[in-house]
Structures are given as C-alpha cells and as structure tokens.
C-alpha cells in the first residue's frame, strides 16, 4: 500500500464519464469543483456562464452543465427541480457547508415519502451529495470548516430514506458512486477525503462489502477468534483503526484482533435503506461477546446509537469527532478528538491491563502535540 490515491479525483473521473454518457446530467457545486478535486469534469463539459469570458477562464458557456454558485440553497433548489424532471444530477461541497441545506434536504425526503404512496408517481433519481474537504483535513481553514453534522441528521430521520456512505479508498468510492447514480427515491450522502490515501480493496471486494450490507471483515488485519473487534466508518478513521491494530500486534503479539470495515449506514442500521445488516450477520462478524472499539468519521454518539441496536452498550466504545477543532496538522486533529491510532490502542491496552503500553502511547501523543504546536508538522 505504498502508492496513494485520491478518492475525490476518482469521483471526478466518474463524473466526467457521466457527462459524456448522459447529455441531461448536471453537476452542482458552490464554486468548489476544483478545490474538491473534481476538476476532471472541465475536460468534457463547460461551466454554466452567461457573461463574457476571459482567456484564462475554465471552459464556460450559457449551455454549460456544471453549475457553480456560492449559494447552497439556490443550487439545491435547482437540482431538486432537475431530479423531479426525471434527470440525474449530483452536488458536491465542503462537508461543513452541506448542513446549510439541511431543511431543504429534509423537505425533499418528505416529498419522496409521500410520492411513494402515489401509484402513478414514477421514482425520481436520488439526491446525491458528494461531501469532501472533511472535518479531519481542514489544515488551513480550521474550526469553522469542521462539521459532520449532516450525517447525524440524515441518520436520525425515522422515515429512513437516507444512506450515508463511507468509502475506505478510491476503489470503494467508485462503488459508492455506481450505487448513487442508479439509486431512486432516496438521499445519498457520500463522505470521503480529497487527499491521497492508501488503497485497501480491489473492485471485487469493494462491491462485496457494499452488497453485504456495508460490512466486511478485512482478513488481512484480522485473527481467528479475536479478543477485540475494531471497526470504523470513514476513510481517515478506518486507516487509524488499521494502524492501531498494527501497533498493538507489534507491542503485544499474542493479542487477537479483528477489523470490520463499515461502508454504509442508514436509520438505526448498518447498511443501506434496502439492504440492512441482519443481527445474524452482525454476530458472525462482531461475535456475541467481545469488546467492540469503533472509530467514526462523525459524532461518536451517532454510530454508538446504531451499534447499540446490535450489541449491548457495555461492549461498545466509540471514538469520533467531538467538536475539538483548530487550524492544525492532520494527526493533531485526530489526537484532539481522541480518534487517533494511539487513542484506540490505549483503550485496548487499558482492558489488557498494560500500563506500560498506555504510558508509551500517551508519550507519543504528547510528542506529536508538541511538534504540531511548535513546528506545524506531525511525527506520524
């Protein structure tokens, strides 16, 4: 896994392909298409623009199907009309700005719920939201750009018409994209890092994970009959969980662990609206009694509420974004929110009674904090 890949760039390639395939497809973005690394689409389509252009402008014209405007509310309204006309579209934005249109998204879900009860209503293309520039990697913007709040909102709506997808790498992002583009009568929010990341899965395994209700044991990081289950939803936090396993295996070789990756969540369940993980499958992957240590892209209480539908609370410990933000380094953000590999490893070491490991990992976290504050870089 030495080579790194950008999930956002892969999505950009798929969007470009969609523009070439479907002449009615539109992409909406509050002027962040290039920043979010979707700019491959400018090689095949123009940005909607009715004013004179300059030589240095991106391809622009009055018939452009890339619609950029610094108003999430207006963009979502236009996209909704496009979808209700039976034509596919997607919207991309910084994660922290998607909550601006929360009320509109909820109204769209109400419309979907009622339209499904009308026999002559045809299914409409899904509301597809591509959420990048995530809370964990706002190196230069800071606390104002750090909020995964829309995830919690969508997963709390009882109508159960939303899917939150968390691809672990660029290949999983491709699988998520294919799922979104074919979906109808639902809201899909897919969250991923725009920076380059390790690749963990091939296409076959990534498809299998989503088809298996969004949950899969990563055998290469797992033991038979594990003592601890580590799980994660979100690319950055999943990477930290996997690295925690490596650290613990190096320092305590006899410990047995299993990593379960989660690529989809929906109301009260792992998986998607139409493909929820059963209790039987959950028990197969998570066992019936072993401690479950989870790392979540969003607020920990959100994932804890879902996992509590499958396992007793006394088995669960969930880490995630706890509203500790700053303009700082990537690993320091993880440390501040107690979601780093060493924070996870400390939890396991504490259960094992390994005070020596706890002290070792706390010292590493303290060293990184000092370096981040004084030099603006990470040790890791």
SSE blueprint and pairings:
Elements: E1 4-5, H1 7-21, E2 26-29, E3 47-48, E4 60-61, E5 66-68, H2 72-84, E6 89-94, H3 102-115, E7 127-132, H4 149-156, E8 162-165, H5 170-182, E9 187-191, E10 197-198, H6 203-211, E11 215-217, E12 228-233, H7 235-251, E13 257-262, E14 264-266, E15 269-272, E16 275-276, H8 279-286, E17 292-296, H9 300-307, E18 316-319, H10 330-336, H11 341-352, H12 355-375
Parallel strand pairs: 2-5, 2-6, 3-4, 6-7, 7-9, 8-9, 12-13, 12-17, 17-18
Antiparallel strand pairs: 1-10, 8-14, 11-13, 14-15, 15-16
Helix pairs in contact: 1-5, 5-6, 7-11, 11-12
Overview of the molecule:
This protein is α/β, with parallel strands linked by helices and 380 residues long. The chain has two domains: 4-198, 3-Layer(aba) Sandwich (Rossmann fold); 207-375, Rossmann fold (3-Layer(aba) Sandwich), CATH 3.40.50. 38% of the residues lie in helices and 18% in strands. The protein has helices at 7-21, 72-84, 102-115, 149-156, 170-182, 203-211, 235-251, 279-286, 300-307, 330-336, 341-352, 355-375, and strands at 4-5, 26-29, 47-48, 60-61, 66-68, 89-94, 127-132, 162-165, 187-191, 197-198, 215-217, 228-233, 257-262, 264-266, 269-272, 275-276, 292-296, 316-319. The strands form four sheets. The protein has a nine-stranded mixed β-sheet with strand order 5-2-6-7-9-8-14-15-16, sandwiched between helices. Strands 11-13-12-17-18 form a five-stranded mixed β-sheet, with helices on both faces. It has a two-stranded antiparallel ribbon with strand order 1-10. Helix 3 links the parallel strand 6 (89-94) and strand 7. The longest helix has 21 residues, at 355-375. The chain is globular.
């Amino acid at each position: 896994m030495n080579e790194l890949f950008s999930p956002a760039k892969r999505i950009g390639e798929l969007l470009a392909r969609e523009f070439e395939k479907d002449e009615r497809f539109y992409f909406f973005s509050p002027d962040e298409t290039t920043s979010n690394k979707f700019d491959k689409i400018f090689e095949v389509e123009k940005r909607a623009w009715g004013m004179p252009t300059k030589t240095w402008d991106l391809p622009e014209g009055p018939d452009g199907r890339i619609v950029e405007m610094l108003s999430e509310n207006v963009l979502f309204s236009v996209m909704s009309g496009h979808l209700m006309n039976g034509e596919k579209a997607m919207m991309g934005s910084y994660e922290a700005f998607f909550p601006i249109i929360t009320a509109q998204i909820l109204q769209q879900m109400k419309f979907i719920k009622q339209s499904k009860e009308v026999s002559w209503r045809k299914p409409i293309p899904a509301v597809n939201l591509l959420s990048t520039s995530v809370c964990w990697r706002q190196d230069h913007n800071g606390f104002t750009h750090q909020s995964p709040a829309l995830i919690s909102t969508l997963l709390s709506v009882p109508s159960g018409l939303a899917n939150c997808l968390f691809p672990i790498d660029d290949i999983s992002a491709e699988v998520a994209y294919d799922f979104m583009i074919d979906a109808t009568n639902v809201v899909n929010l897919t969250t991923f890092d725009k920076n380059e990341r390790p690749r963990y899965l091939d296409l076959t395994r990534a498809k299998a994970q989503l088809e298996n209700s969004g949950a899969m044991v990563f055998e290469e990081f797992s033991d038979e009959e594990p003592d601890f289950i580590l799980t994660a939803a979100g690319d950055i936090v999943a990477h930290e969980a996997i690295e925690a396993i490596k650290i613990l295996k190096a320092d305590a070789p006899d410990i047995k662990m299993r990593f379960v990756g989660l690529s989809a969540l929906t109301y009260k369940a792992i998986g998607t609206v139409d493909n929820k993980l059963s209790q039987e499958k959950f028990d197969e992957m998570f066992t019936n009694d072993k401690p479950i240590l989870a790392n979540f892209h969003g607020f920990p209480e959100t994932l804890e509420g879902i996992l509590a539908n499958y396992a007793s609370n006394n088995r669960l410990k969930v880490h995630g974004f706890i509203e500790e933000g700053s303009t700082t380094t990537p690993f320091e953000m993880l440390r501040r929110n107690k979601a780093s590999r060493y924070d996870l490893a400390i939890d396991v070491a504490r259960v094992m009674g390994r005070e020596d490991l706890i002290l070792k990992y706390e010292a590493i976290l303290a060293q990184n904090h000092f370096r981040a504050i004084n030099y603006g870089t990470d040790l890791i």
